[in-house]
Write a structure and sequence with these properties.
- By secondary structure, the chain is α/β, with parallel strands linked by helices.
- The chain has 2 domains: about 1-205 and about 380-400, Glycogen Phosphorylase B (Rossmann fold, 3-Layer(aba) Sandwich), CATH 3.40.50; about 205-375, Glycogen Phosphorylase B (Rossmann fold).
- The protein is about 45% helix and about 15% strand.
- It has a 7-stranded parallel sheet, sandwiched between helices.
- Helix 10 links the parallel strand 8 and strand 9 (about 255-260).
- Helix 6 (about 140-145) runs antiparallel to helix 7 and helix 14 crosses helix 15 (about 360-375).
- The longest helix is centred in the middle third of the chain and has 24 residues, at about 150-175.
């Protein structure tokens, strides 16, 4: 197949779960198919330099998303009050990319076109004949932001959730096929958006890559892995540090935590600065040592959608997991067998303490989880499912159908 894949970012450096999922599948698709990759320019030279690993041809378009920490972002926030498009979508829009894609689609005759992430959708004249690859139900994320906020933030999140719902519903209805990353997400989209052209693929993991080769000592009691400029992760770690960690320290006063992920939010930096047993790594070249050197992997998320690759990666690294229900959402894991679930601060803390103190329990859970994940969730199997789905999606080539 000749595939057009549209994503707002290059896939290196790989620091986000969605990047990992796309990269692992595209690498495998690229072995047998001609992949054309369209994206926005990046300040990271590694992105363009390594695109050949998953793409036959790359189209790069000018755009600079305003930093959320800059004064210009305040102007975008004010403008978002009046714009019908959600801010999370509009701030990554490139008019140059949209104009070029219209011509590329009309002339290149692709067998499959993939809109990777909802944020890529504005770059298409319309989504007829396009597969929309949904790593999350974006509306659900914004509704959960609303539930976990107060004051003016709550009002802003509510407004953005309403706009995201209308935008996401229209995009899902217009596309030829929606692919979700879990059965739960697919069912949510059917009910929420009134669509039936939705399929799902599971989350995969590279078992060999994450396998602990042995000889790694434990430096940390707890590890959290994730981009620390993503609001659900920021909220989850604030919740953990403020409400859960103090309970754990009643039992283990020196409990240590490493937060391994890029761009720690200032609020998390402030919390860590006053606690010698909290380590912030920022961007790391390899996440595996932080998993191998930790006793328990935590996923204390209250907001989010899609599936958390960090859980499968922790399992593949041989680390037992404690999560909230939302953190483990969409994964076919069995609480009490493959991981422990704590949906309030006391139960989450109790599970962490139990696994830290009882290494045999943690080892047994990790081994059973690894056997379960290894049997069904390799990236090869996931990619094969995705390949079949996009091969059956109908692409329109007539330029008149693009307007």
């Amino acid at each position: 197949m000749k595939i057009l894949w549209v994503n707002p970012n290059f896939l290196h450096p790989t620091t986000k779960g969605g990047q990992i999922r796309t990269l692992e599948m595209l690498r495998r698709l690229h072995r047998n198919h001609e992949v054309h990759y369209a994206t926005l320019e990046s300040d990271e030279p590694e992105g363009k330099a390594r695109a050949h690993e998953y793409a036959s041809q790359t189209y790069v378009f000018p755009h600079r998303a305003v930093s959320k920490r800059s004064p210009a972002f305040l102007g975008q926030l004010l403008g978002a009050v009046f714009s019908p498009m959600p801010l999370a979508i509009s701030r990554h829009f490139s008019p140059a990319m949209k104009a070029a894609l219209t011509q590329i689609i009309a002339h290149e005759k692709f067998d499959a076109i993939v809109c990777d992430f909802l944020v890529s959708a504005p770059h298409f004249e319309n989504l007829r004949g396009v597969v929309l690859f949904q790593h999350n139900v974006e509306t659900m994320i914004w509704r959960r932001h609303t539930e976990n906020s107060s004051g003016i933030r709550k009002s802003f999140f509510r407004l953005q959730a309403e706009r995201m719902f209308r935008y996401e519903q229209n995009c899902c209805k217009d596309s030829s096929l929606v692919i979700a990353v879990s059965r739960e997400d697919a069912e949510t989209m059917r009910a929420m958006f009134g669509i039936d052209h939705v399929a799902d693929i599971p989350t995969g993991v590279d078992l060999e890559y994450f396998k602990d080769r042995g000889g790694t000592g434990k430096r940390f009691d707890l590890v959290f892995v994730g981009s620390m400029d993503w609001l659900p992760n920021v909220d989850g770690m604030k919740y953990f540090i403020q409400e859960i960690l103090p309970i754990i320290r009643r039992t283990k006063s020196d409990c240590s935590l490493v937060i391994a992920g890029r761009s720690p939010h200032p609020s998390i930096q402030d919390m860590a600065a006053g606690d010698p047993n909290i380590t912030l790594t920022g961007t790391v070249p390899d996440i595996r040592p932080y998993l191998w050197e930790s006793s328990v992997s935590i996923v204390p998320l209250r907001i989010g959608g899609g599936t958390r690759l960090k859980i499968y990666e922790s399992i593949a690294a041989g680390v037992p997991v404690v999560s909230t229900t939302i953190g483990a959402e969409g994964l076919p894991v069995e609480p009490g067998r493959h991981l422990l679930i704590g949906d309030d601060a006391a139960s989450f803390a109790a599970h962490c303490c139990a696994l830290i103190s009882n290494t045999n329990q943690g080892r047994s859970m990790a081994e059973e989880s690894l056997a379960f994940v290894g049997a069904s969730f390799s990236w090869e199997a996931v990619t094969h499912q995705f390949e079949r789905l996009i091969a059956n999606a109908k692409v329109r080539h007539n330029p008149s159908e693009l307007t």
